[in-house]
Design a protein that fits this description.
Radius of gyration: 22 Å
Strand content: under 5%
Strand order of the largest sheet: 1-2
Largest sheet: 2 strands, antiparallel
Mean pLDDT: 88
Helix content: 55-70%
Number of helices: 16
Structural class: mainly alpha
Distance between the termini: 5 Å
Order of helices and strands: EHHHHHHHHHHHHHHHHE
Shape: globular
Number of strands: 2
Amino acid sequence: MIQADSPAGPASTSAVPSASKLGLWGVVTVIYFAVAGGAFGIEGLIANSAPGMAILLILVTPFLWSLPTVLMVTELSTAMPVAGGYYAWVKRGLGPFWGFMQAWTSWLYGLVIAASFAVLFATYTSSFLSQAFGVTALDHSALLSWLVCAALIVAFVLLNIRGAHAVGDSSKLFAVMVFAPFIVMIVLALFRWLTHPGLAHAAAFWQPVTPPGTSLLSAFGLGLFVVMYNFLGWDGVSTILKEIENPLQVIPRAMRIALPVIVLAYLLPVLAGLVSGLKWSSWGDTTFFPELAASIGGRWLGIWMAVGGMFCAAGLFNAMVLTNSRIPFSLAADRYFPAGLTARHPVYGTPVVSIIVCAVIYALLSLQTFASLLNVTVLLYGVSLLLQFAALIAFRVKEPRMRRPFRIPGGLPVVVGLSLLPAIILVMAVVSTLQDKAKGPIFLALSLPMLAAGPLLFLLTRAVFKRGAPDVPVPIEYVD
């Protein structure tokens, strides 16, 4: 017999029309773009950590960082398929303060990272115009570059207002446009390697394991944040659980599909580049894959890859708008934010005000560059992730009878062990960054104020907006 301990409140019920909800492949592509969006962004790992360590990090990090998260998100998503996802889980499991900190760190990370995707779109647009037409105007005009960002933001805000189904459909198209040039590049690189087995730098493409004069630990630390950054975002889909058709069945299946696809989407292009004969130390950042594609297949493939980069950035931004905009909506439902943020579109049922408010912030943040914020965003995400694992453990201890359609096998010891893996990886990455004399001070100066603002904002919003009002209840079902 299954019993619910409390009715769902306004934040956990859905005003989204069933026709607008996401199916399996829509969820898979949203997860894909929430996490990866293609191999773009992994390029700097090769030159920093060398081929051997880069391959090792791409293969090992998902098991230590991503797989525990996938299992945690799947268990909690199927146990509590409520709007707000991870915010509701942590609020119910650890209490309102920690729920607020979870939402704050996740939202802040999402704001910064979404804006950086808009900047990335402008960067790849510039690369495409330069390679295809010799136009370099975006490289020399900050205003033109920002206008490209603004156009992207407006376009995808309008798309997101139409609902999760529209985002899922567009993500499927974007995934095809991203995969196509990479598949061609991989095939051409493999053909070149097989037909020229003595190709310079390709015979032992995994060497060197570390850069000259760099220890194994240093090379590992240099690349760890980059790989963590490129494998985070698995929990984002939880914020739209009420916009997914039959999430109890769809979420586990989507995670099983998305994880190996994303690992291969990083690994195979890197291997293709390493066997192509191009020296590993020449690998650059951000727009290197179009250059690599051009060296393997010619100018036409480089142009195609730049177009793929544009679709990658657009897909990343699209998925982030979808998942990130639900956080202030859920906080407003609990009266931590102004009540106007709970307004829904009269036709599509989407949180239209929350989407627009987030979009304005994206536009303002896209005036900046984000290289220095890479490590900070990983820390913010890591803190929010550890709170989710703490909630997972708390539910196992306090709610043993909670209905869990998907349950991580092995009992509490396995759950605790899985939770420790991402915690250890995060601590290693932070320590490595603090030891870097160039990055360490910047990291502290940016991250500490962002984290410290959470408790202060919690007290302020409780006094200004909440004023003793109860939180929206998070229902739990029990099995006798």
